[in-house]
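Look over this one:
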Amino acid sequence: MDKPFFSIIVPVYNRRGEVRDLCRSLADQTCRDFELVLVEDGSTDPCEDIAKEFEDKGLPVRYYYKPNEGRSIARNYGLERAQGDYFVFFDSDCVIPPQYIATLRAAFGDNAPDCFGGPDAAHESFSDTQKAINYSMTSFLTTGGIRGGKVQLEKFVPRTFNMGFSRRVYERVGGFREMFSEDIDMSTRIRMAGFSTVLIRDAFVWHKRRMDMRKFMRQVYVFGMSRITLKLLYPDSLKPVHVLPALFVVGSAVLLLLGIFVSPWWLLPLGLYFAAVFIGALISTKSFKIAVLAVPAAAIQLGGYGYGFLKAWFTKIVLRRGRDIDEEVNIRKGRNEKL
């Protein structure tokens, strides 16, 4: 086949069902100017047969299997082997609308941006829990809209569930670091290297996210902890919106104690907030059940992230434990070149 313009790079670890859905959605693209680079990161339940199945159906897919080393190293493995001029990254739990590649082509015009990102949404086939989690992760009431691509409290930062950059950026900046929030780190390095980033609102993906609240709790907890790591690497990266979940945790604890030992009226602010979450979800999703589920999803999103943030802040900033300060300083100064 001719050299593709886009190389879609996806790391995979034991996600056969998700890979099938992803491949099916890519096979339905109205524009076929791309290749799919699937990098199996040491899965015990590999998906090579699924890749071969869709390759036989005409999907331009190249499959690689490597030992398990982490998703960032898997992405870098794909970058080294990609043939396109522009790299696009999805998570394996994404489903891609049929017009996605065509939308990028139209948005790029004659000059592709250095780096781009797009929002995510919940597909109608997702479970009610997944839709509630998606609402929590994209709502202005819970995250300030920093993931939804709408009204935002922070400048948009692409994430690897839907982002891309040019080969020129890769040659200058290098690949991903193996760390939590590696996509934010990558986006920051791209910006610091003098490249521009654009948000393409119409280039959205359907993102399944976590399947249940327990896994969602673990995910956002890690997000909160990694925000402190990012602060150590990039001191100016911490914005007020990142601190809000921690303030929510502290404020909620105070209100609960006052509500129990002083007066139940102290619980009113929490009640009003979660009522707003419920009403917002009801208007957005038009589903009473999803709106009900959005309330615990919001509590988990804010509570898990806030707790992780506070724990990492106390251990790494206050106690200066649980981190290699010299290594983080070296990374920030560009001395650590291992990716």
Summary: The two ends are 31 Å apart (CA to CA). The longest strand covers residues 34-41. The chain has a mean pLDDT of 90.
